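Protein Record: Sequence and Backbone Structure Tokens
======================================================
Tokens: labelled as protein backbone structure tokens, with as many entries as the chain has residues.
Question of interest: how does this chain fold, as expressed in backbone structure tokens?

___
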Amino acid sequence: MKLKTLFVVLWIAAAAACSERPAPSHEAAAPSRPPAYEVARVNGVPLMSDRLTAAVNTLVPLESFHRNVKPEKMVELQRKALQTIVDEELQYEDGVRLGVTVTDAEVDDALARGKKQYATEQAFEDARRETDLSMSDLRREIRRALIIQKADVRQVTSQCEVDQAEAARFFAANPQRFVMPEQLHVYAMTIGVDPSAAPRVWTEAKARAADVRRQIKGGARFEDMARKYSTDPSRDKGGDMGFFHRGTLNDAFEQATRDLKPGQVSDVVQTLYGYHVVRVSEIRPPQAKTFAEVGAQIQKDLTTKRCADMRDAWLARLRAQATVVMADTKSGVEVPAPGPPAQRR
């Protein structure tokens, strides 16, 4: 579990602080934030709406670059964000129970790394002031995030790494997973047609493609014909499309190449984009990969899965032991309880 970026921490810390500070008399007063309200209570600790909003704001850019999220999708994001802040509170409390500590030096280091995301010190200060956030508030939230991170290390990541021997056993037990499928080296010549073109245009294009095929069958080099007649960008390479695994071509090309032997040319193939003539120059048979080729990736994938499973189990235990009370939001959206056991008011 990686430490949140400082940008995210700024949002969450501002939400947690949720205080309106009077502006100095010589400055224009900043618009006040609406008062926060409780959205959940975890083992007696209230989680406020500003923290939920901050968590939602970190999810929105992942769904829409322009932040135009449909109402039904926003409800889903709110549920996900609520689950996140409840789980983080449970992880934080477990870290405290485990006696996890964070030194001032570690907070300083995390803060310094966060500042590097900003072009200048002034840019960082502008972002901090925009959140109406004091440095003590920010440091408190960074310390909380570090406690969560350390608790995750102790309960999950320090125990879930898969070693090379285990990866080798998985490789030996699942040989069928590590076979490179049959590959075709495909060349294609295309006579492109606008899908909305008149039937006459399609008929003429088909006749042209058939004529090119006849020339190729008569001894003309496929590459020369592609360079001369093809409308596809691959014409510059003589129609060379490269290697494809069997089964990854579109249906028309799969059908056309199914029975072709190296050097043979297909019949004229019609697709939405026009007419094509396809040639297979080489067929590489399925090839089993060696553990040397795939061992590191197997180890990484198995570790990722085991860590995720262990983290899910950890959170399930925390939820089962917790008292979580969900409150209705004032946004008009009913947010259900994130996980058992939970109670509704």
The chain has two domains: 6-22+29-161+322-344, 182-285. The mean pLDDT is 86.
